[in-house]
Design brief:
It is a single chain. By secondary structure, the protein is an alpha/beta fold. It has two domains: 109 residues, no CATH class; 76 residues, no CATH class. It has eight helices and four strands. Helix 2 crosses helix 3, helix 4 packs across helix 8 and helix 5 packs across helix 7. The longest helix is centred in the N-terminal third of the chain and has 30 residues. The chain is globular and about 45 Å long.
């Protein structure tokens, strides 16, 4: 089974775009380039300890293959994290929170890489959860898979920290996962992939 190497990158131009977009908004002091580069060293070391086991387990539990050999992860001072291009901010308090959000975004990335294989599964989830918001529907399967990763490698305490995330749509998808059981949701997904 293959898995990609995550390459952490700093791009001054990309970072400046985020920084300029935040000027004038109520925001904490934006981290300097030096601080971001030091942060990258810190989280990269933390990630490398778990990289192989997490990425292999994501593929195994989802029955999806990693198509990319490398995934570049851009780290900027402040942003909303997203999966393509994989972009992460500096998290001041908890470096392990960076790993949790990186894993979340990598699950999205795995879905993107396997979109055609997942078409029937997405149709099923969209029908089953038709009353939910788009964002909630997109995160039900993701949070089911992420629950498996948390419980297998990091424990229930860390899972509970993420479940309490304040975004309404995320809360709802976590609630659905807890009510229906992450294993059941993953099972329903796997039945429908090609």
């Amino acid at each position: 089974m293959n898995y990609p190497k995550i390459i952490f990158k700093y791009s001054w131009i990309y970072d400046q775009t985020w920084k300029e977009g935040l000027i004038g908004k109520k925001s904490k002091k934006y981290p300097s380039s030096k601080r971001i580069l030091n942060y990258i060293k810190k989280v990269q070391k933390l990630w490398r300890k778990d990289e192989k086991k997490v990425l292999l387990e994501l593929s195994k539990i989802s029955h999806l293959d990693w198509k990319s050999k490398f995934i570049y992860c851009y780290v900027v001072g402040r942003c909303r994290p997203f999966s393509d291009p994989l972009t992460m901010p500096v998290y001041e308090k908890h470096p392990d929170y960076f790993i949790d959000i990186l894993t979340h975004e990598l699950i999205h990335n795995l879905f993107i890489q396997n979109f055609k294989r997942m078409k029937r599964s997405w149709q099923y989830f969209y029908r089953k959860y038709k009353k939910e918001t788009e964002r909630t529907k997109h995160h039900i399967l993701l949070h089911a898979i992420h629950s498996h990763i948390y419980l297998k490698f990091y424990g229930e305490k860390r899972l509970k920290r993420n479940v309490s995330f304040p975004i309404r749509d995320f809360k709802k998808s976590w609630q659905i996962v807890q009510n229906e059981g992450y294993k059941n949701i993953i099972r329903e997904f796997i039945k429908r992939i090609r």
